[in-house]
Amino acid sequence: MAMHSSKHSLTTCPTTILLFLLLQISSLIAGKPHVINFRSPNLYPEGMAWDTTNQHFIVSSLHHRTISAVSYTGIIKNLIFDPSLPENITILGLTVDSHNNRILAAIHALKPYPPFNALAAYDLISGKRLFLSHLPSSKPSDQPVANDVAVDSTGNAYVTNSGGNYIWKVNTNGEPSIFSNSPKFTEPTVDRDTPYSYCGLNGIAYISNDNGYLLVVQSNTGKIFKVDVDDGTAVEIVKLDKDLTCPDGVSLRTDGVILVVSPEVNKLWFLKSDDGWVEGVVFDEIDLDLEGYPTSVVVGDNDRGYVLYGYVKEGILGSFEREGFRIVEVRSSKENGDKSVWIYVMIGIGFVCFLYWKFQMGQFVKNMDKKIS
User: Fold this and answer.
1) pLDDT in tens, 65-85
2) Are residues 165 and 56 in the same domain?
3) Could you say which of 201, 280, 309, 314 is the most buried, measured as most Cβ atoms within 10 Å of its Cβ?
4) In terms of domains, do 44 and 20 share one?
């Protein structure tokens, strides 16, 4: 029995190690990026969010008063239809407030329709509207654009104003206020010859570290601002190793990396910071599809990034004919390269384990032969 137990341990131990290594290698080796095709006539979604609770994407609409859910397999269903909203509004940025089971939506009316800027909150399960907060202007001459929205850990929402370069805050009761109207937002120079010179503060993300702060991108300058959520006047420009060109959507991974997408230059940037976003580094960028006009990026399960191709520019120019849209997984080639190195390391470890096991088995057989003889 003792000899059987010894032999069993010699054979199973290396097998267990090799099986473990194979599982680790298979988790590192990724297939092709996930592409989700979905169809909905005249949808033209500009904003997208990830619903962790229900494990699906949520998309907005340029032409409809709807918010829809899109599954991993491309099945789309209508979550919210709000006929009480004006007919010609556009639902832009979205976020999911998982703690309070709400969907928050930034709503704007594009020209030439009458001005309309609001934040709507809907129950995540029933779709019932919880409140509609009309967002105030800082001065009569303002031409505000409610663009994107983020939510903090207590349920306060922060909405970017791309037309006026300030940030609204809407508390959990739906009470709005102008949260941050810092002169820092107008310090950077704007190139008035660019087609996006009119678009100021845009994508926004909440970071829970250090008592909480916001990272906000500015499309017409390529800057990123860090804004304290306890004091909207505490605003700093993040020092980047390179400026971004027309950044739009922003999303945060659990490891602190942020993903930023640009529809004008069809790029996605991966950024990181080692000092709480006093400074930041663009450590990778990838090219995106030109035609799809990618406006939004989210981080889904397992920190996988996804970009929305909503063909919004086509819709703004008056098209009503498109039915097909896409959500496409995006990956950092540099990070995948690092994973490839680990694959070879693990293969090497596995090979060493095999040689050691082979040596041990040889010694075991020799000892058995001696005992038998």
Assistant:
1) 999 999 999 999 999 999 999
2) yes
3) 201
4) no
